[in-house]
Amino acid sequence: MRPVSSEKAILLIERMNTLTFIVARSANKKQIKEAIETLYGVKVVSVRTLITRSGEKKAYVRLSDEYKASDVATKLGLL
After folding, report:
1. Contact status, residue 72 vs residue 18, Cβ threshold 8 Å
2. Strand runs labelled E in 1-79
3. Do residues 19 and 69 lie in contact, with contact meaning Cβ atoms separated by under 8 Å?
4. What's the pTM value of the predicted model, to 2 decimals?
5. Is 16 a residue whose pLDDT tops 90?
C-alpha cells in the first residue's frame, strides 16, 4: 500500500477528507479499511476502489469527521 500524491488526491484531501492509496489488487474493501485504521490510528467511514488502466488497484478512503486527512497526509509527507 502506498499513498498517491497527484493533484486530484491533494484536492480530495482538502475538500472531501479522503486519502488515496494504491493497494494490492487482491485486497478487498474490508481489508483496506482495517489496514488504514491500524496503520494510521484513524476511523474510516468508506472505501471506494477501482482498477486503473495500468492494472493497479486504487482506493479512495474517506475518514470520519473527527480525523483530518490533511494530518495523515502531512505524516506521510504528501503536504
Report:
1. no
2. 2-3, 18-23, 44-51, 57-63
3. yes
4. 0.93
5. yes
